[in-house]
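Running co-folding for 3-isopropylmalic acid.
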Amino acid sequence: MTHSYRITLLPGDGIGPEIMSVTVDVLKVVGQQLDISFEFNQALIGGAAIDTTGEPLPAQTLEMCRQSDAVLLAAIGGYKWDNLPRHQRPETGLLGLRAGLGLFANLRPATILPQLLDASTLKREVVEGVDIMVVRELTGGVYFGQPKGLFTTETGEKRGVNTMAYTEAEIDRIGRVAFETARKRSKKLCSVDKANVLEVSQLWRDRITQLASKYPDVELSHLYVDNAAMQLLRAPKQFDTIVTGNLFGDILSDAAAMLTGSIGMLPSASLGNSNPGVFEPVHGSAPDIAQQDKANPLAQVLSAAMMLRYGLNQPQAAESIEQAVLKVLEKGDRTGDIMSPGMKQLGCRGIGESLIKVLENA
Ligand code: IPM
Ligand code: MG
């Protein structure tokens, strides 16, 4: 039986359109092979939306996302929009999308592929075997807490304010996702906070600790975020699943990404309770290399695999894409960011063609 899905595509800015185009080609081939049909509808977000409509997340885009089975997002942002007022910034569109769809759980896997061991800036023996899942809270914390804004003090001085806040319910729901995730992996969960300084983190630690009694099969540990950053670089293999708040998760997932060689390899899934999920690479829009056919499309392609697995319950199709990525790397095909001696350097489109060839010969 043919399964049919409506996918909203949000290519966004910078390298977004190039990596999206490769990914759509890959999805079409896998769809044909496994009898899955996709109806792709494209919408505007970020700078591209600002240029056309004046706002970074047009209501029409959010509505189209709500009406679809899953959303595939590439990247947003660029120098051109960096000086606009906050409500018109591309990033505000992305945050609006996450909040608008209630996507509170962000899964960011960082797995070192044997084929890329030498692409990491860290020593082989440090990164070999690394397989980490960062579970980042995505719709709360300092990104969304009130009060926020630029205020003027009595002396006329400007004062910038953001508030890091979490309610018990917000901590519990991300905690449950994290424990469930750890349970499906090697049953080790590390919760990261700054409980030695922040009240919000103390609450975080208390709730996660309480929740642990419901998951006796999962081994829970806690780290302060500064130590966690150090441990990630010192001995990353001690980690399996990490759960943390929005800002700490943003930072630690970039650090975890570099263990794998390049942030150009890392996909993510943003999930909520009812709305469709958003699947996007961890990296940004890389405006410095946009439209030069240099971008690594693999994080986007692997985000499509996460979409198939977590959003559409099509694990076989996900597996097929992940295997194709491994085979392309096996052949030695590389973009510049993961290039190493003896390998063959290709552009974004070249990697796309290589993926299709591998899929067609599978
Ligand atoms: C990410 C990005 C975003 C974030 C930006 C672009 C708003 O860095 O997804 O990690 O901070 O969440
Ligand atoms: Mg980030």
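Result summary
The chain has a mean pLDDT of 96.
DSSP finds twelve helices and 14 strands in the chain.
Job closed.
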